[in-house]
Amino acid sequence: MKLGASTLAGIEYDLETTLEFIEDLGLDYAELVHQFPTENIDVELLESYNLKYSIHSPFMDVNIATLQEKSRLNSIEQIKHSIDFANKINAETVVVHPGLASFLAKKYFLDDVYEAANDAIKEIGEYGKDLGVLTTIENMPTFDAMIYCNLNDLHELLTSYDMYMTLDIGHAKHAGYPADEMYFDSIKHIHIHDNFGDDDAHLALGEGSIDLNCIVNNLERNNYDGIYIIEVNDFDSIKKSYEYMKKNF
Questions:
Q1: What pTM does this model have?
Q2: Helix 110-131 crosses helix 151-160 at what angle (to 10 degrees)?
């Protein structure tokens, strides 16, 4: 089982502190959040750790589904920059958010938002394939502006593009999916965290109500061979989650 943690848990610290914590804990992977304050990452720094990496492309102030053309093109370029960086450091996966529907866009132009998102996802996927970088699209929680909260719709789209999904287990729970319906053969990467279904809380594993054993065992039975990235709020939650994974799997 490939286990790692997101550097999101250490966003208030310098990257060195977070990577040292992840390595010292005994995890094999770190998922680098490739946006402010770690938009520019020193490759030599990464090479100084005994870690392998995945990349979470920028999602703050980035929207590949926006109907504002210049903003959308800029967002796509930022995602491509993350794919380039992943190629440079031989990262195993790049995670991409599918975009957002602003208030007016959601009210009047939602079909156009999905069309823009789909075109952008296809372009990003083809860019990743050309570089040999596994580029995955993440399912979203059911907050107002989010699109592709529906796992079935995302799976269908990605299958049509010969692309793959990052399954965010907490997001799927927030969207109302029971544990036994969180498996699709398009899943190549996992974000694992806990909640009670009422918020995207990113709790330590075992601190919410998600049936994580059911989900992980189902993935393992289906020969899932990607990374499980612990995506929680702080270092203590990474440690608790790692202990949960070792105890239960």
A1: 0.97
A2: 50
Q: What token pair was written down for 156?
A: 């269908």
Q: Cβ atoms within 10 A of the Cβ of 107, count?
A: 9
With beta carbons less than 8 A apart as the criterion, state whether 165 and 188 touch: yes
| Pair of tokens at residue 129 | 């394939």
Give CA–CA dist 138/56, Å, rounded: 10
Q: H helices within the chain, ranges in order?
A: 15-25, 43-47, 69-89, 103-108, 110-131, 151-160, 169-174, 212-221, 235-248
3-class secondary structure, 74: helix
Please identify which residue in the block is written with the tokens 């702080």: 234
Q: Which residues contact 176 (CB under 8 A, 6 or more apart)?
A: 142, 197
pLDDT in tens, 14-55: 999 999 999 999 999 999 999 999 999 999 999 999 999 999
Distance, in Å, from the CA atom of 59 to the CA atom of 34, rounded to the nearest integer, reads 9
Are 3 and 232 a contacting pair, CB within 8 Å?
Answer: no
What's the Cα-to-Cα distance from 178 to each of 89, 170, 192, rounded to whole Å?
Answer: 36, 11, 15
In whole angstroms, give the CA distance from residue 194 to residue 178.
Answer: 13
Say if CB 32 and CB 59 are below 8 A apart.
no
Query: Residue 25's CB: how many other CB atoms inside 10 A?
Result: 15
Between CA 72 and CA 102 the distance in angstroms is: 13
72 backbone dihedrals φ, ψ, rounded to 5°: -65, -45
